[in-house]
Specification:
about 180 residues, alpha/beta, Purple Acid Phosphatase, chain A, domain 2, four-stranded mixed beta sheet, 9 strands, about 25% helix, globular
Amino acid sequence: MIYFTADQHFGHANIIKHSNRPFANADEMDAALINNWNATVTPEDDVYILGDLTLRPAAEAHRYLIRLNGKKYLIRGNHDKFAQNAGFDRYMSDLEWIKDYEMLEVDGRCFVLFHYPILEWANYYRGSIHLYGHVHNNGLKHPDYGEKLNLLGPRAINVGVDVNDFYPVSINAILQKVNGKAK
């Protein structure tokens, strides 16, 4: 199976207040995110992380990554400093690759993976799907974000944990949503 996710912010206590997450502290949040991930993803699955895995340094990012099931691919977010630092080189085996942007083709369908929501993306007029994170749940409560995100249309999907019950999202769920079969 292929999964997508974003914005875990492992070890980041302030994100609890910022995104109104239902956790008492960062340790509780981290445990829930890891449990949800591993209850969903098997070691053989592919997981595309669309940024903001953690603000923590390379060694701490490694300690999170080795606890998570699946083959992991990272689309760099604005908080993934660990993935830009030379200190992470020794942990590169934790990830299949690190990129800023990716076009993934699955069964003839193009998926554009980027941390940020974008108005128009590659193959937009050919039915491609844009997956993003970054905005957390702000699109649900912030009038500017909500209005802007509505412009993206039904083929732009926020895969961030804040709007997906703190779980990774399967490619099947994405396709159902895009095809109008899911809420």
